[in-house]
Amino acid sequence: MKPLTTWRWNPVRGEYENGDRVPLEGTGEISAIDAFSNKTMLLLGCTGFVGKVLLAMVLDRFPELRHLVVQVRRKKNLHGEERFYAEILQSPPLRPIVERLGEEILRKKVQVVEGDLDQPLGGLSTEAIDQLKYKVDVVVNLAGVVDFDPPVNESFATNVYGTQHLIELVQLLNAKLVHVSTSYVAGKKNGRIPEEVAIGYFPLRDTHAGRHFSVAEEIDWYETFVDETRENRAGDLRPLRERLRAGGMNRAEYWGWTNTYTYTKSIGEQLIARTPGLTYSIVRPAIVESSLHFPFAGWNEGFTTSAPLVLMGGDGVKGWPVRNGPLEVVPVDLVASGILIVTAAVLCGKNQPVYHLASADENPIMLPRLVAFLGMNSRYKHKHKKNGNRLANLWKAYVETQVITVESLEVRRARLHRGLDVIHAALTLGKTILGSDKVSPYLKSLRDTRRQIRQQEVTLDKFLPFMFHNSFIFETGNVREAARMLTKEDLNRLQWDPKSIDWADYWVNIHTKGIEKWIRPVFAGREKRGQ
Amino acid sequence: MNKAAFYDLDGTLLSCNLVTMHAYYARNDRSLIKSAYQLTKVLLSVPLLFGLDLYSRSLFNIFSFRAYRGMHRDRLIGLADDLFEVTLKPSIFPQAQALIHTTSELGYRNVLVTGTLDFTIRPIALHFGIEEVICNRLEFKDHVATGQVLAPLLAENEKARSIREYAVREGIDLAQSCAFSDSSADVPMLSSVGFPVATNPTRRLRRIALEKNWPILELRESSSTLPPFLKAAKAH
Predict the structure, then answer these.
(1) With an 8 Å Cβ cutoff, is B171 touching chain A?
(2) I need a labelling partner for A410 at 20 to 30 A (CA). Which of A2, A223, A251, A296 fits?
(3) Which residue of A has its CA nearest to B128?
(4) What ipTM does this complex have?
(5) SS3 of B215, please?
(6) Between chains, do B73 and A4 touch, taking CB under 8 Å as contact?
(7) Which residues contact A223 (CB under 8 A, 6 or more apart)?
(8) What CATH architecture does domain B3-235 belong to?
């Protein structure tokens, strides 16, 4: 909907302002268009959520780019190239671009190389490397394992060893590097987080002066740990995957990171920062969410964003332990713009080592507001629901969401489980009195409910560090400065403007709807398979 | 040159009104007690609003928007979809969607011109597939409604002025454009286009339409005849 008006919402002040939009002015010290003209970009990780949007943006907005090389891993029976044309280009964010440009132009401009960052030199063949040597100007890396707590070997393979392979590849190609990490490498800290990368960084550095962190020692620890864990169980009856998972999490928490993902990404960053002679910038997005405008409003995929929480809210979870602070959310198209702005800066030699891409520095959205939105969404969904338990629907529709503390969360959970135990006992008794056929459907329903609740608890716990335990704001001065250096024409194509996000409209009308449309169906499938 | 179809909403495409919509927000306040209080205020104000509406749409609008004072914008936006399902969608006239579809197919740019508030209009516009909207906006201070509406308040002459401004900006030939409304308060809006249509007209508007030889269209029945100019265009 396009309301025809000159009033614009100022989300920071919470009021409308009049007057036409002031055209964005830049100094022109960086020209992204010139920087990309006649250059070759190697893109790793274009198959992921951010990767696809970045790929779409480059193809759509920078026809000046001479050559785009994308690395695609083979999957099952599909070669990298087949996968690219049959799967990636046919995905919702890319299809409109493909239709507009035509496959012929794309085949001329885009070269697909098969590879895998888990392999040395990215798994590229010697022919591919010879062909790309001295041709590739910049490597943009979005490849990584973004699961919070997989078995530690999976994280290390891509986020640590993969980064080593990346560095070797970039050096061999004599190219510059834009490496996408995450702002949550900061770990369990509070306050304003500066844009810097330090060798030997670990989050508890300030309070645990006796400890010393070194990448080499972490890799030693990892290799020893994996060997030992694989060889002997030492009375630990848990399966291997679970022991590897727990080991990674324990190590991460020991140093002060929230999970294996952020711990291994930090190691990756430190590997890059300590490499002499490498021209690089590290880009750290915060929580990447549904697109605001590009390629269309509400595009989202994956489960490591707020999607699980929004889905839980939509399913009627009422008690939310959140602090009264901002959630660092940033729409994926702003992230893609930010990455391209940084890439232009790198190509022009005017880059900083680290760029945060986040929103709270300029336009914070506070968690209690988001909790209220979850409640309103639940009301809307359950008020008009035709199926399901009537009482449950009424409860889910009309009981308001509440901000609670972690302590009262524990109390509520205990109470809920006790209540479920009572119901279970009653049903079991009923089975002996009334017979199995009458009671079994209810027992099954109870089992399903318990499973859903347990899943929700596990999910909530994974996100507690981001919602409750730590309160921080990522400084974003560097990307703002870079944006200010762009030319006027660049600013028509690349916008870094979190200040303009109308959070209420975005969250209710774009983001929640996007998650329900694109992620709910995948999520429902997963739940059925008991993942 | 382009041509547009300007649609009024309340009484033209559906039968809800500002009071009903405000009553929804009142009874869906955060707590039961607050809801009861808000609802009582609305009920008490109905006779006054009724009188005001007979006297002046503008005054009616101003007064009923006052009732939003103190409401948080998050809630107004967050509940808009539910409001639509509960109070607006059931009241859409049987022929409304078909008419909108017809004008769109015949090359008109469909534009909603209504005194309804922007957050309420959104799900309606989405439902009808109408992208362009000229509507009212509440004034907010720190996300809370002050009870005032942002200028220009859309009603009567202001609707006509907005349409003319829109036409200039977008290169619309008003002489080729059409407009649909049910109320005599919208005579200025209807008079600004070459093809006005009195739609489900009130008694007063019907009299004026007959005087001015404007076609009359009834969207509240399950089938009706299109005005001559649309029938003719469709036949081609």
Answers:
(1) no
(2) A251
(3) A1
(4) 0.87
(5) coil
(6) no
(7) none
(8) 3-Layer(aba) Sandwich (3.40)
